[in-house]
Amino acid sequence: MKQNLILIVMAVVLITSCKNEEKTIESSVLEVTTFSLKTTSNSQAFNALDAKVQDNFTSKQPGFIRRESGVDKNGKYTVIVYWETRSDAEASMKKFMGDPSVADYASMIEGNSMKMNRYTITADFKADSSGFVEMMSFNLVDGAETNTFDTINEKVADKTATQKGFLQRITGVNENGRQVVVIYWDTKENSNNYLQTFMSDPTSKEFMGMMSQPSVEMTRSQMLTTLEPTEMSKKDKVVALLNSFNTGDQTPISYINPEKYIQHNLSVGDGLEGFGEIMKNAPSGGFKANVIRAFEDGDYVFTHTEYDFFGAKAGFDIFRFEDGLIVEHWDNMLPLQEKTVSGRTQLDGATVLVDLNKTEENKAIIKEYYDTVIIGGDFGKFANYYEGDTYLQHNPMLPDGVSGFLNGVKKMAESGVTMKLDQVHMILGQGNFVLGVSEGSLGGKPYAYYDLFRLENGKIIEHWDVMAEIPPKSEWKNDNGKF
Fold first, then answer.
1. Tens-place pLDDT, residues 102-150
2. Hey, which CATH number is domain 356-473, 3.30.460.40, 3.10.450.50, 3.40.50.970, 3.80.30.20?
3. Which phi and psi (to 5°) does residue 141 adopt?
4. Which long-range contacts (CB under 8 A, 24 or more apart) does 312-315 make?
5. What are the tens digits of pLDDT across the range 339-378?
């Protein structure tokens, strides 16, 4: 009898032990989505919508555990959602894409920038007070042994756990073997302090050495819940002003300095009075503006817009700010063409803003391009600014490719139409987009040229432009000049 009782007790202990072990290794799903906002989106409005999406949509989906959102210094967002199962995550995403309650939120995201991965994890979230999160995903180098990597990973985890401000480290792997490491910190400062020592630590170097370096993706994000309220950006003010053509909202007019508004559109009078006069003469349906791209460079904001302004037009606008108010405006417009040589429109193409740390470098490249080739005339160096024949062209009269551009210019010259640029007045940029504003002539007539370039790895990849004839001074409605 006593022996039977011992066996029963041992069985209960064994069963309980198995249950506890199953609980500790029970897996869940970590879903990581990264993206950038459209350049025309208001980040403050998006952050507010993000909280509503979490409260009103994501948290109500079956299998939801937790959701965190953050943004890095370049404006790249990371949304981390924990789910009970992969099927729960997949079902939520399918519903999300068509749910009207998140339509405004989704419309602000640059779709081409979005990346999503799901990883299997075996940890419960415990970093409730986190203000900053690091995430690194990667593939292991070919031939790497998973057991060896796991051992090194544990050593790194142990060291990380001793750091000031550390809250939690979560690791996982997806169905293709891609690894993820997510580290939660109380503040960015403590994360930065550890990052400096991490890169020189021998164990860390061994850990990094097992990663396929080209596959490594890393984000370091401030939690949206900890962001301090900020003033409306210059870019957001300009986009709101242009959108007011569609909405009739009078608030954005207050973003213009009523005492100083220097107008360079030669068909519009100077000051707010000139702006108001043109609005009075709008057609019955009013003017319309669809801002495709918007960029901020110091005190300047420049936009690329589809207008219904006495007809369909493509336009560039530049606004200069002083003390938070618009004090000066330049623009260039051209009627939209139904057919283009390249098959591209004057407004479509890439809109994703990246390489914010390369703004000045890219502006310098375009300045040199103008000085050396376009104005300097050294066409022997033309190819230095392009990646082979790759050149996506949105000028309606020219085909794609560097060769297409050169042949197009050659044909124009052969037909007696000479295009010339004499002086560059402005070079503005943000990240991988740079706008050049210059003057010259076309067919002997004075012209204003606005050229928008997109660069990749220091090379010009894509081009949009607006060329507009400068009217004779007798027709000007202000004395500020085109430039």
1. 999 999 999 999 999 999 999 999 999 999 999 999 999 999 999 999 9
2. 3.10.450.50
3. -65, 155
4. 312/336, 314/346, 314/347, 314/464, 314/466, 315/466
5. 999 999 999 999 999 999 999 999 999 999 999 999 998 9
